[in-house]
Amino acid sequence: MTDSAMRDVNLTHTPLYRLLVAVFVALLLLPPAAMADAELRPEPIHADAAPVVGQLLSRYHYRDQALGDSLSREVYEAYFEALDPERHYFLASDLQDFRYHEQALDDELRQGRLDTAFAIFKRYRERVKERSEYALEVLAEPLPFDTTERLELDRRDAAWATDSQELDTLWRKRVIHDALTQKLSGRELDDIRESLGARYERLARTLEQYSPDDVFQAYMSTWASRFDPHSSYMSPRRSENFDINMRLSLEGIGAMLRSEGDFVEIVELITGGPAAASGELSPGDRIVGVGQSRDSIEDVVGWRLGDVVDLIRGPKDSKVYLRTLAAGSDARETTVVITRNRVELDAQAAQAEVREVVRDGTGYRIGVIDLPAFYADFAAANAGEEDYRNTTADVERLLASDTLSDIDGLIIDLRGNTGGSLEEAVRLTGLFIDSGPVVQVHRSNGRREVLSDPEGAPARYTGPLGVMVDRHSASASEIFAAAMQDYGRGVVMGDQTFGKGTVQTLVGLDRFGVGNEQTPSGRLKLTIAKFYRINGNSTQLEGVMPDLEMPYPHANGESGERAADNALPWDTIRSADYRRSGALDEYLSELRRRHDRRLQADPALVSVAREADRIQGEQARTWVSLNESERRERIDASENARLEAVNDQLRAYGLDPLENLDALEPDTLPDILLDEGAEVLADLVELMASPGQLAAAPDQTTAQAGAR
After folding, report:
1. Could you list the residue range(s) of the whole structural domain that residue 570 is in?
2. In the annotation, is 500 catalytic?
3. Pairing relation of β-strands 409-413 and 362-370?
């Protein structure tokens, strides 16, 4: 890989990059409401840029896909879906009215003609205005909370409404649902009408904020999204904002946000950030209000994502008040207070601890290195500093520290680690193998590059090793976990990982003669390569399957890259030249047997599994009752079940139960899955010390059940 390509890979896997791209790129694809004034039309530079975007996508994207009638039809449907993902505004007749352009969009793109895209946007503006006015009419009437009706919340696969009356029915239910949600959170009806009235008026008013660049951005990103979910177009203003934020330190709550219909949703909490430290926010939560004080929270449903982000950000040490709705069909609004701060590198640095596992009087010291990200101080590295902060150096110091002295086994905890520096993933792998390849990078032109342990020095740690992962472990985390698994060097425990195995780069359109200093042209974020394990399997889509599974909820069986539209497929290339060096194969069957016995017998693990099943069931239900009594019963039942699960887990550790969930602090619950990881490592230590135990009949794990 060239130096410039390597920099691209490093850049596109940093936590800061992910945070900013989630903020700015999500807006490109999913604008919450629509367009500017009636005279909004494409500008000359858009006519120049459109063919270049099309050529870059068709020639250089990893997916070899020509611009043609088939792709044109896909883009036609996808553009309507990008503007109205939940089918709340467009009618089926709207799609039919423009259908004669369905197979011509590719030709129009080559010619720089954008009239169809802007005309569809204009129709969207009209439909949003109609819905806004109707919602206000419904809000002015008595709102029945004793109905037997239900509202389907997930309409992504619903048919487009056939007429306005069908949308009227949907929006009447939506208004009742919005009002009931606020009523269940303790708000008075007058306050609810005022809040929702401002929300519905804003749906139409927001349209006036769109510029020609915004429309072009949304349309070009729709084209890019048909190649893969990580490719998109960034308008000049978005590119400028992106660069500013890459140069300056972020001060905010430390969360990745995206537009999801009319809502702003939390995608990821950045480790070391204020939001993660609060323990009160989770991925999937929707932010419905933001304020600088508890009494000045503004409803932000229907706002542009960038405007919500601007409202959330602020000076260090100041407070921001977020009104949120938890993921799931039934939820109360809650207010969370976050003190803004910078996401410091130190907060994401590797940390070490030791877990003690005692069996029949014998103690095992299991070291744990918590690794929230694959980080590196790129500024210091580029400045030529030799002792710059990086993941591998920190982990190497921890391995030599007093904390991890005399350990019997080691766990690298990658749960929640969404990636970072590719170089650090490769170098870290070198601490646990003597030498050899780590990952393969394959480009669309067939070029393959094998990245190997750069030092080739003896492994720094050669003892029993485990790697913990979950569905949020992505990219660089998957590279490291896959290498440990392929070498047989460490047992991978947890959940199937995210499945992001692609590489992106940023391409400025000015390099192709589009625009100038006075009229900038924007950039294209383009997927150019895929990662492959050294065994030849892609990490794309399927991620890494653990050797030992832990209980996690799986709504609808999809998460991570597998839930994304148009994701690149899983496939294989030829294996790299490596030799499986570990001795795990002979122990894995017995490790699974012992692990499964604990899952069935240990009260804490049984409770975690039961709670995972409950959450999965709640998330799988996509409809919500509009009956107040039924909603209260469901919410109360959910909260009681959650409290029961929490108390079961506390009792398993000999801790006092809680009276209510309000008393649950971020660090109240023990890390049950990490403790089980330590038990697995203790099993591995025993088996490696006495291979004869593989033939032994009973094991000691049942006797340990409940004796945390």
Report:
1. 346-582
2. yes
3. parallel
Backbone φ and ψ for 235, nearest 5 degrees, come out as: -65, 165
CA distance linking residue 79 with residue 69, whole number of Å: 15
* 416/356 same-domain check: yes
- Give me the sign of the Cα torsion angle 691, 694, 699, 701: positive
Q: Which residues of the chain fall short of a pLDDT of 50?
A: 1-37, 244-250, 555-556, 696-707
- Find the catalytic residue in 84, 106, 486, 510: 486
Active-site option among 225, 239, 329, 475: 475
Q: What is the pLDDT of residue 708?
A: 58
CATH of the domain at 325: 2.30.42.10
Q: What pLDDT is stored for residue 517 in this prediction? A: 77
| Structural domains in the chain (count) | 4
450 burial type by CB count under 10 A (0-12 exposed, 13-18 middle, 19+ buried) = middle
Give me the pLDDT at residue 46, please.
95
**CATH code where residue 413 lies:** 3.90.226.10
Whether residue 222 lies inside any domain: the answer is: no
pLDDT at 251: 60
Please provide the distance, in angstroms rounded to a whole number, between the alpha carbons at the two ends of the chain.
49
Q: What is the pTM of this model?
A: 0.85
Active site residue 486: yes
Nearest Cα to 222, choosing from 41, 59, 92, 30? 30
- 359 in a structural domain: yes
Catalytic residue, candidates 173, 183, 500, 530: 500
